Amino acid sequence: MAGVGVTMEVGNDGVAVITISNPPVNALAIPVIDGLKEKFVEATRREDVKAIVLTGDISILPDVSVDLVVNTIEDGKKPVVAAIEGLALGGGLELTMGCHARIAAPKAQLGLPELSLGVLPGFGGTQRLPRLLGLSKAVEMMLLSKPITSEEGKKLGLIDALVSSEELLRVPNVTDIGLKPRSVKRVAVIGGGLMGSGIATALILGNIYVVLKEVNSEYLLRGIKMVEGNVRGLVARKKLAHDKAEKALSMLKGVLDYSEFRNVDMVIEAVIEKVPLKQTIFSEIEKACPPHCILATNTSTIDLNVVGEKTSSQDRIVGAHFFSPAHVMPLLEIVRTEKTSAQVILDLMAVGKIIKKVPVVVGNCTAFAVNRTFFPYTQGSHLLLNLGVDVFRIDRLISRFGLPMGPFHFAVAMAIFDAILSYCKLLPRIMRLHNFTNNVKCMDQVIMLPGYALSSISELQKKRPNACQLQDLAGYGVALAVGKELKAAFSDRSFRSPLVELLVKSGRNGKNNGKGYYLYEKGSKPKPDPSVLPIIEECRRVTNVMPGGKPISVSDNEIVEMILFPVVNEACRVMDEGVVVRASDLDVASVLGMSFPSYRGGIVFWGDTVGPNYIYTSLKKWSELYGSFYKPSRFLEERATKGIPLSAPASTSPGSRTVTYELELAKRYSGQDDMILPQHQGQADNDLGYRDASGMAVACG
């Protein structure tokens, strides 16, 4: 059978694209089925594969069984989403019903026409269709052999969401006013520390010439070596060809002054979080750069209006908030002020496409969207600890929920981790770790610990630090400084715990001196340190929040909820204030930037899954017991009392759910046409469908 085949390509992003080729209609003939199963099994076993996409306009020959393939998908540990455009008939539809969720483009045709040919649906459709539609409607579909549209399938429950294949993710007043992105060929990066070198690495890998500036030769040499280490590490792990690595490194130039800035198209400032220093830099680069140059800052906490207040070019100032390691993490938070021009936003989105990032445009506020949303994560954990809950129990439960680490690490490496990264002596946390069920080990870890370069990652993959361990590894000093700034901004809903100060006073500096919450001994795994418990008890005496002086009694589920419900509550405030355009922006950002378990769909989607009313009543109860930290936001209260999903637009009626199109964003702005974003089961935010970052996606069309 000429032209028949199933091929698989695995990109540097870890996405395996399985393509069916059986013209003219891609019927699932025997060679196709055999090849499909073979490639699925191979992709499932390969450690470098994080996501799987099956493409092809799939129909079916009535005398061929695909039951084994459907069972392979349905029984696999990696979740699967089917995306349908055009036709899904017979075995093609039965294949999609073996997936965990289905999305479809408008006017797609769905049906089981086998009876019109004198045979029964034989690939599980007789069992799976009634489970989705109910017996009566399922029997009708099979007996009449009449296809239905995807719109009708959505109403019946066969389709989870409808997605227009033409619809693009739009940013109001940016992508809808006829502008075209300008070419950005040369970028200057100020600061060669961990963040600056990572940003420079991402840019040169995207074939963008980089001028890296530092204050002296020693720091400059160190920064260049870090970039080289990043690139060589990719080569060593076979993520990058040697010739491409050499070409990338040839596009890097180190400088000690602004002489090379006269012909750059963009500057990205990545120095420590000090307002006077940043203001001085922006005043200098405004004079040194051409009038069209974009002036970007990688700050994670400082108001952009403050950064640029001493310049006359505030329309060119924008936030380019990378997540470290900048050349690895896929999220780019683009921060716009009231004065930032639409052209600048569009240009930066185009740069995101070139360097394979997923940009989320957010408003200007303290900590912006992602770090601000997760600020209560740390606060809630410390409040629970001071209410008498065991610190190591908190860690275990949060890890079991699916987050790569517990909240005592997040106190340093999440809500304020970018500030930590500004200090060259400190290196960051696990950057990406995906769990699919409580019993499944991680498929991918990217861990950066003090003293280790990215090239050491293969050794670090053997370790899995949890919350307190990672806080130990990061250190506490920066947490004290930056934590005060964030607590000042959100004083009405902050819990002030002296625990970190007490740890520092007691000489516990984490990995740096071998003890923190855990003990670190050479050649052995970190172990919980019982001697830290008296320090925790002292902290509890100082805060004195335990009712009657006795530890509270809470279930495992309540512990997780008391930590994560405040995060949902803050996400509601972020949406209410218009910091993000839509709820799915936070969903995508929470997964890509904060490693929120992607199979739970993102922080807002998870909140809708749990139920706004349940979250609201729980927070209200806890606020009466434990204070204003748990006070429900106005937005949450309104959605809960009116029965409106958290993700629904302000103008949406109760019971509806917004559907957006993040994959189009990925395709348009990441440069990867087949990129699959981590996302949740049962919601489609793109025109191909996406599941877990280490999951499968099946595309029919």
UniProtKB/TrEMBL annotation:
<feature type="domain" description="3-hydroxyacyl-CoA dehydrogenase C-terminal">
    <location>
        <begin position="368"/>
        <end position="411"/>
    </location>
</feature>
<dbReference type="GO" id="GO:0004300">
    <property type="term" value="F:enoyl-CoA hydratase activity"/>
</dbReference>
<keyword id="KW-0560">Oxidoreductase</keyword>
<keyword id="KW-0520">NAD</keyword>
<comment type="similarity">
    <text>Belongs to the enoyl-CoA hydratase/isomerase family.</text>
</comment>
<dbReference type="GO" id="GO:0003857">
    <property type="term" value="F:(3S)-3-hydroxyacyl-CoA dehydrogenase (NAD+) activity"/>
</dbReference>
<dbReference type="GO" id="GO:0005777">
    <property type="term" value="C:peroxisome"/>
</dbReference>
<dbReference type="GO" id="GO:0004165">
    <property type="term" value="F:delta(3)-delta(2)-enoyl-CoA isomerase activity"/>
</dbReference>
<keyword id="KW-0276">Fatty acid metabolism</keyword>
<dbReference type="InterPro" id="IPR001753">
    <property type="entry name" value="Enoyl-CoA_hydra/iso"/>
</dbReference>
<keyword id="KW-0456">Lyase</keyword>
<comment type="pathway">
    <text>Lipid metabolism; fatty acid beta-oxidation.</text>
</comment>
<dbReference type="GO" id="GO:0006635">
    <property type="term" value="P:fatty acid beta-oxidation"/>
</dbReference>
<dbReference type="InterPro" id="IPR018376">
    <property type="entry name" value="Enoyl-CoA_hyd/isom_CS"/>
</dbReference>
<keyword id="KW-1133">Transmembrane helix</keyword>
<keyword id="KW-0443">Lipid metabolism</keyword>
<feature type="transmembrane region" description="Helical">
    <location>
        <begin position="187"/>
        <end position="212"/>
    </location>
</feature>
<keyword id="KW-0511">Multifunctional enzyme</keyword>
<keyword id="KW-0472">Membrane</keyword>
<feature type="domain" description="3-hydroxyacyl-CoA dehydrogenase C-terminal">
    <location>
        <begin position="468"/>
        <end position="520"/>
    </location>
</feature>
<feature type="domain" description="3-hydroxyacyl-CoA dehydrogenase NAD binding">
    <location>
        <begin position="187"/>
        <end position="364"/>
    </location>
</feature>
<dbReference type="InterPro" id="IPR006180">
    <property type="entry name" value="3-OHacyl-CoA_DH_CS"/>
</dbReference>
<protein>
    <submittedName>
        <fullName>Uncharacterized protein</fullName>
    </submittedName>
</protein>
<keyword id="KW-0812">Transmembrane</keyword>
<dbReference type="InterPro" id="IPR036291">
    <property type="entry name" value="NAD(P)-bd_dom_sf"/>
</dbReference>
<feature type="transmembrane region" description="Helical">
    <location>
        <begin position="401"/>
        <end position="424"/>
    </location>
</feature>
<dbReference type="Pfam" id="PF00725">
    <property type="entry name" value="3HCDH"/>
</dbReference>
<dbReference type="InterPro" id="IPR006176">
    <property type="entry name" value="3-OHacyl-CoA_DH_NAD-bd"/>
</dbReference>
<dbReference type="GO" id="GO:0008692">
    <property type="term" value="F:3-hydroxybutyryl-CoA epimerase activity"/>
</dbReference>
<dbReference type="Pfam" id="PF02737">
    <property type="entry name" value="3HCDH_N"/>
</dbReference>
<dbReference type="InterPro" id="IPR008927">
    <property type="entry name" value="6-PGluconate_DH-like_C_sf"/>
</dbReference>
<comment type="subunit">
    <text>Monomer.</text>
</comment>
<dbReference type="Pfam" id="PF00378">
    <property type="entry name" value="ECH_1"/>
</dbReference>
<comment type="similarity">
    <text>In the central section; belongs to the 3-hydroxyacyl-CoA dehydrogenase family.</text>
</comment>
<dbReference type="GO" id="GO:0070403">
    <property type="term" value="F:NAD+ binding"/>
</dbReference>
<keyword id="KW-0413">Isomerase</keyword>
<dbReference type="InterPro" id="IPR029045">
    <property type="entry name" value="ClpP/crotonase-like_dom_sf"/>
</dbReference>
<dbReference type="InterPro" id="IPR006108">
    <property type="entry name" value="3HC_DH_C"/>
</dbReference>
<keyword id="KW-0576">Peroxisome</keyword>
